[in-house]
Amino acid sequence: MQLSRRDLLRSSGRFGLAAAMGLGAAPALAACGGSDNAGDADGQARLGWIQPASGALASAYKPAYAAARLAVREINEAGGLLGRPLKLLEEDDEGKPGTQPMVARRLLRDRPQFALGPTGSSQAVASASVLGRAEVLQSAWGVAERLGDGGQFPFHYQLVFNTRQQAAAVARYLCEVRDLRKVGLLVENSEYGEAIRDAFTAVLDDRYGTRPVSVQVFNQAAPDMTPFVKQLDRDGAAAVGLFSGQPQTSVLTLRAMAATGFAPPVVSHELSYIKAYDAFPEELMERLYTTTYAAFSYRPGETPAQGPAMEYARRIAAEPTAAGLEFTAATSPYYDFLKLLADLVEREKTLAPDKLKAAFDKVTDHQGPRGRISFTSARHTGIDDGALVVASLLSAKRKQSVHGIFRELAPGGQT
To answer: What is the pTM of this model?
Structure first.
């Protein structure tokens, strides 16, 4: 996730832009920006908070918002925004792409200047398509590359690595470091799955003159991954890119690999449920790797460095809502978005989204706990390409990992 950030158990599938635009010119879509104290008559900052509070994803997504809770608390303890506490407008999206137009319509009645969430690429595309028309500054947890396109989504800021960056990091590790060119892909049927499949295929073609030897696309509710794993084996995959934000899918894939004996090196999107590792032989787990931020990695034989990332990790680990998924909580984009927003509001002395958008578009080398952040008017993916590394999955169980937040770099996984 990261969970990314994602449809962990069940989703209604991909939700297109056309459906999101079906709200037409409803009065609720009137622009929220324009004045220095846009929003409340008394100038209070209002933050739309889109999170599943009900449905199958409610508990699984809860840790994704732990860092946001931490940021809101820190902002309000420091005096809020322009001297007033940040007011939350919480909306339940049930974790589904199809709910986003209705959620946006309800949210816009309260005229927020800013919005946080939803989580999942399909959900993010649907939401940003609507809220952007109302000029609400937003950061959702979606890694599809187009969510960082400042032309398509001018008021959305992507503060996670995107699918192109992830594909490049995984392909480099497998093809260059491990010299494994016969790569198979196992991807979910979602906005994220389609985006990472296309990005990975393009990277293999452009940089290595090859293509995936097998592409297996599974339904997010698939109860058994054995057929897909067997097909990867039959197609001659010497390594696998496993791209799913669903912990149960990753567990089912591991189960299938253990049963079939097909266990090549695998680089996953993430496997956040550390306790699930205990069900599988260590020799299998040692062949699994994950993408993560360089700030949350350390070299083999060493321990994580003390500094801002470690201090942040400890604060995250102390958050009750992060329990069990501390890695997901720490890699969330929401802390950086809110803290950067607070900095820009203080500097610009305004809550007007249009004026703050201009400030966001000029951010250069802002230091966040996960790395440096920069934007331009065209590029709204704030994470630098060099911020992403490949790391050991099994290392998450070690004490120095701080509840799995820090990962040991995979052999040759340094940038």
So the answer is: 0.86
